[in-house]
From TrEMBL:
<dbReference type="GO" id="GO:0005525">
    <property type="term" value="F:GTP binding"/>
</dbReference>
<dbReference type="Pfam" id="PF00009">
    <property type="entry name" value="GTP_EFTU"/>
</dbReference>
<dbReference type="GO" id="GO:0097177">
    <property type="term" value="F:mitochondrial ribosome binding"/>
</dbReference>
<feature type="binding site">
    <location>
        <begin position="132"/>
        <end position="135"/>
    </location>
    <ligand>
        <name>GTP</name>
    </ligand>
</feature>
<dbReference type="GO" id="GO:0005759">
    <property type="term" value="C:mitochondrial matrix"/>
</dbReference>
<protein>
    <submittedName>
        <fullName>Translation factor GUF1, mitochondrial</fullName>
    </submittedName>
</protein>
<dbReference type="InterPro" id="IPR038363">
    <property type="entry name" value="LepA_C_sf"/>
</dbReference>
<dbReference type="GO" id="GO:0045727">
    <property type="term" value="P:positive regulation of translation"/>
</dbReference>
<feature type="binding site">
    <location>
        <begin position="13"/>
        <end position="20"/>
    </location>
    <ligand>
        <name>GTP</name>
    </ligand>
</feature>
<keyword id="KW-0648">Protein biosynthesis</keyword>
<dbReference type="GO" id="GO:0003924">
    <property type="term" value="F:GTPase activity"/>
</dbReference>
<comment type="similarity">
    <text>Belongs to the GTP-binding elongation factor family. LepA subfamily.</text>
</comment>
<dbReference type="GO" id="GO:0006412">
    <property type="term" value="P:translation"/>
</dbReference>
<dbReference type="InterPro" id="IPR035647">
    <property type="entry name" value="EFG_III/V"/>
</dbReference>
<dbReference type="Pfam" id="PF06421">
    <property type="entry name" value="LepA_C"/>
</dbReference>
<keyword id="KW-0999">Mitochondrion inner membrane</keyword>
<feature type="binding site">
    <location>
        <begin position="78"/>
        <end position="82"/>
    </location>
    <ligand>
        <name>GTP</name>
    </ligand>
</feature>
Length: 562
């Protein structure tokens, strides 16, 4: 394909505005997939995406399309809409020259529409606004057109109005891609320069790297070098994604495709890496800014014998999602594990679900926290803490002050002491609001160290640092959960939550006399021995706090999310 006949573009939008549905129609119109009524979000391949109805992973597809007597190669990258996955969007944009900015004809511009527009704008990409869902009863495409003109300074005539669901006017989107997005600026005669913009791990074939070729070409059998590790590999397979892998033996500058080169371990395939020919070293591409985790949680195998399996599952999944940070950690109660950093709560849930579904792992995920720094002064904790937005949303009463950008639409970007810079789009009815946020850095806050005691003895595993205002409710919940999960013993157990010497919550487990032999009326001695042995084994899994035996299960119930 001559470079001038190639277009590389992404579909970006706020969550649920119809990116994946539009991608389905584009795949059908170009004959990439068969036109049936069953095509629903075909590029959302992961089980978690299908179950939740959201895209969490950008997907690439090469489409062939004839227009004006010419064949074009259109490389489409479908991206996620939720704020937690915007890292996926910014990476995808590095392989593109233009975007389709999809906006719901009823909801209009939302926070992620604005955030994603600016990602594309900063990358100097051509933006084609597409107003979707014009078939909806409450659709008001003219109002949305005006919003687009006002907020993004794009003339309303440039908006394409479609229904991705019904297929109305979708063909003109393809025409606009060809007419308004420039072909990639590349040099085919220069030596190979390929950007790894995504990668996945295949159990049998190893690492599959998604690449965008900026210069030169790559063929099966070529010796290539990773600029990151300086390791040399032989290319086993190259090809395009239609949307499944199709080997083509060669890829040329301007194309987007995949490459398999015997990379076996996760550390060998860094996203953002530059690949070049062994005989022609080149200056590496700038790569990507690394993602900054906002939410941290402990992850432990349910059974320690599963540690190594879980370790390898986490390594493989982080290759597919490099925005997750992993550090080894251990807990007295839960054993060896990791502290993982995520971009948000949804991101954390999706990662956990993918581990379970794609790697058959069962894990304990502890209650998530945001990063904090604590400075210890005398007996009291002086704290510096960073909050995430949902924790403070309810206390922020100033959000209604904003700039009116269109009828019933307000655009806010303000600094507030706890939240940092917030961008919010709020409709005047307040029925609809969406938020995006930037990092606010660390702010001083009133935190306290809270201990949990069993009959006066501190359970170190359960000591936490909490906000002063939340201490009571958190303490109460932990005491209640412990009460529910501690087996009754021969004596009464007092469960207390305390800050220093002050008790803030208390529950009691009543005494209970347990005799494993009670049900064996005389007789069978071997059965008695078996029961005693089983009780002894059960006890091994207990931890003693003072004279109280706490089963591991109780810790799991208390430390687990929910
Ligand atoms: P994320 O990937 O999660 O950000 O969502 P998305 O932007 O890819 O949206 P998706 O294509 O999954 O569509 C969201 C919902 O809107 C689905 O229920 C679609 O069936 C529906 N939808 C998409 N396009 C149209 C349309 O043109 N008209 C109507 N009525 N519904 C649509």
């Amino acid at each position: 394909f001559p470079v001038e006949d190639i277009r590389n573009f992404s579909i970006i939008a706020h969550v649920d505005h119809g990116k994946s549905t539009l991608a389905d129609r584009l795949l059908e119109l170009t004959g990439t997939i068969e036109k049936t009524t069953n095509n629903k979000q075909v590029l959302d391949k992961l089980q978690v995406e299908r179950e939740r109805g959201i895209t969490v992973k950008a997907q690439t597809a090469s489409l062939f399309y004839s227009f004006g007597g010419k064949q074009y190669l259109l490389n489409l990258i479908d991206t996620p809409g939720h704020v937690d996955f915007s890292y996926e969007v910014s990476r995808s944009l590095s392989a593109c020259q233009g975007v389709l900015l999809v906006v719901d004809a009823n909801e209009g511009i939302q926070a992620q529409t604005v955030a994603n527009f600016f990602l594309a704008f900063e990358a100097q990409l051509s933006v084609i606004p597409v107003i979707n869902k014009i078939d909806l009863k409450n659709a008001d495409p003219e109002r949305v057109e005006k919003q687009i003109e006002k907020v993004f300074d794009i003339p309303s005539e440039e908006c394409i109005k479609i229904s991705a669901k019904l297929g109305t006017n979708v063909e003109s989107v393809l025409h606009a891609v060809i007419e308004r997005i420039p072909p990639p600026k590349v040099h085919r005669n220069n030596p190979l320069k390929a950007l790894v913009f995504d990668s996945t791990f295949d159990q049998y074939r190893g690492v599959i790297a998604n690449v965008a070729l900026f210069d030169g070409m790559v063929s099966k059998g070529d010796k290539i070098v990773s600029a990151h590790t300086l390791k040399t590999y032989e290319v086993n397979e190259v090809g395009i994604l239609v949307p499944n892998e199709q080997s083509t033996h060669k890829l040329y500058a301007g194309q987007v495709g995949y490459l398999i080169a015997g990379m076996k371990t996760v550390t060998e395939a860094q996203i953002g890496d530059t690949l070049y020919l062994h005989k022609h070293p080149v200056e590496p591409l700038p790569g990507f800014k690394s993602a900054k985790p906002m939410v941290f949680a402990g992850m432990y195998p349910i059974d320690q014998s599963e540690y190594n399996n879980l370790k390898s599952a986490i390594e493989k999944l982080t290759l597919n999602d490099s925005s997750v940070t992993v550090h080894r950690d251990s807990s007295l109660a839960l054993g060896a594990g990791w502290r993982l950093g995520f971009l948000g709560l949804l991101h954390m849930e999706v990662f956990n679900q993918r581990l379970e579904q794609e790697y058959n792992a069962s894990v304990i995920l502890t209650t998530p926290t945001v990063p904090y720094k604590a400075v210890l002064a005398s007996a009291k904790l002086i704290k510096v803490v960073k909050y995430l937005i949902p924790l403070c949303m309810s206390t922020n009463r100033e959000l209604h002050k904003g700039v009116k950008v269109a009828e019933k639409l307000y655009f806010l970007k303000k600094m507030c002491n706890l939240l940092g810079s917030i961008m919010a789009i709020i409709s005047s009815s307040f029925l609809l609001a969406s938020f995006d946020y930037e990092d606010a850095g660390y702010q001083t806050a009133e935190l306290v160290k809270m201990d949990i005691l069993l009959n006066g003895n501190i359970v170190e595993e359960l000591t936490t640092v909490v906000h002063k205002d939340k201490a009571y409710s958190v303490g109460k919940t932990i005491c209640e959960r412990l009460k529910d999960s501690l087996p009754r013993q021969l004596f009464e157990i007092a469960i207390q939550a305390s800050i220093g010497s002050k008790v803030i919550a208390r529950e009691t487990v009543k005494a209970y006399r347990k005799n494993v032999l009670a049900k064996c009326y005389g007789g069978d001695i071997t059965r008695k021995m078996k029961l005693l042995k089983r009780q002894a084994e059960g006890k091994k899994k207990l931890r003693k706090i003072g004279n109280i035996e706490v089963p591991k299960d109780a810790f799991i119930k208390v430390l687990k999310t929910q």
